[in-house]
Every structure is written in C-alpha cells, then in structure tokens.
Design brief:
Radius of gyration: 16 Å
Order of helices and strands: EHEHEEHEHEHEHEHH
CATH architecture: Alpha-Beta Barrel
Strand content: 15-25%
Largest sheet: 8 strands, parallel, barrel
Structural class: alpha/beta
Helix content: 25-40%
Number of helices: 8
CATH topology: TIM Barrel
Low-confidence stretches: none
Strand order of the largest sheet: 1-2-3-4-5-6-7-8
Number of domains: 1
Oligomer: single chain
CATH class: Alpha Beta
Shape: globular
Number of strands: 8
Mean pLDDT: 96
C-alpha cells in the first residue's frame, strides 16, 4: 500500500523554550503537513497526554502525525504511523504487527541499510547524518552532499524508489544542494524549533524544498 509522504518532516524535540505541543502548533500554523513527535523521556501516560493534544492539532490542520518508536501505543491514540530509530529493527515483523494501513519509517546511515528498509517494506527512510548534530548524536560518518549523490545513484541503479529524507544537521542554506542530489525530502528539528522565529524558519525550509 503506497502511502503519502511529505517532503518536509518536522520533528519535535525536548527543548527548554517550547513544549512538544507548542512546537507542533507553531509548525502546523506555518503549514506543516507532517509532524514527527519524538519524545524519549516520558512515561506512557505523559506520552499519550502529549500525543492526544498533538493529534487534535494535526487533525485541525490536516497534518500527518508520526510517533518516534513507542509502537506499543498503536491504537491508543490517533497516530498515523511510527518512525523506528533502531537500525537493526525487522521491518517485515513490524509491518505484520502494525498492519498495512500504518505508515512506518526507518533510519539508516548506509546505502545497504536503505536497500534493506526498502525490501522489508518501510514506507520511507531518514538517511543521515548530513553533518554533526546535537539533536540525535551518533558516531556515524557524515554523509554530505557527495554521499547523498552516490546513495541515490545506487538506489536508482537497483530500481529502488524508497522516499529518502536527508536528516541530521541540515540548515536552510543546505537545502538547494541536498535536493539536487535526488533525495525525496528533508527532516529537520533544531534548525526550525530552535530558531529565533520558529514559524519563519519552517516557512523558509518549506519554500526551498517545494
């Protein structure tokens, strides 16, 4: 089942200046059609409290709500899908568990990982890090522009059409060059929610991607 995947994924994050719900509200008011709720610090009751509010915001503005991990919450709130950060997760089993209607995205830092995600039925993949990021620190090599070009060429040569989103340290100044590599879109967090004007930052990303 082919899913709608937005080209700009906004990812909420634990930050001091704005709650997850405030981030979602501002992004949706700016035109966001894809909100990924990423919170790994709360218990289930707290998560559901956030998710239920964000789901209402997304419903009001016509946005898709994706939750990072926490697949045990499937069916307990109005969640359209899940983004799985575990790069070793078995997506064939996840699909069987969650069903065809649920959008499932994965993460990878290698072309081989992207190919596996495509074969196992992921609906999209976040591919990074583009450069150093403090939002989701890891020790993987930075992919950079040339890395995206090579990855997309390899996927095309293998007939793989998985929507790939650049993620990890992307700024608005990087967007044009990244999109020219052939990636489907971009996922962003800190460059938007930690900007002086979050709404303006989102609009800048959106205008450059679209």
């Amino acid at each position: 089942m082919k899913k709608f995947i937005e080209k700009l994924h906004f990812i909420t994050h634990d930050i001091d200046q704005l709650t997850h719900t405030e981030q979602a509200q501002i992004a949706c008011e700016a035109g966001a059609k894809w909100i990924q709720y990423r919170c790994l610090t709360k218990n289930d009751d707290e998560l559901l409290e956030d998710i239920n509010v964000i789901a209402e915001i997304c419903d009001d503005w016509g946005a898709t709500l994706i939750v990072t991990d926490h697949i045990h919450l499937n069916g307990k709130a109005d969640i359209q899908g899940f983004h799985i950060e575990d790069m070793d997760a078995d997506f064939t089993k996840l699909r069987a568990q969650l069903g065809e209607a649920v959008t499932i995205g994965g993460s990878s830092n290698t072309v081989e990982g992207l190919i596996r995600l495509a074969k196992e039925g992921a609906d999209y993949a976040g591919f990074g890090p583009f450069r150093e990021t403090t939002t989701k620190p890891n020790n993987a090599p930075h992919i950079g522009i040339e890395g995206y070009k090579k990855a997309m060429a390899t996927l095309n040569q293998n007939g793989i059409t998985l929507p790939v989103l650049a993620v990890g340290g992307v700024t608005s100044d990087d967007i044009e060059a990244i999109m020219e590599t052939g990636v489907f879109g971009i996922a962003a967090s800190a460059a938007i929610n930690q900007a002086e004007d979050m709404r303006e930052a989102y609009l800048t990303f959106y205008d450059k991607i679209m």
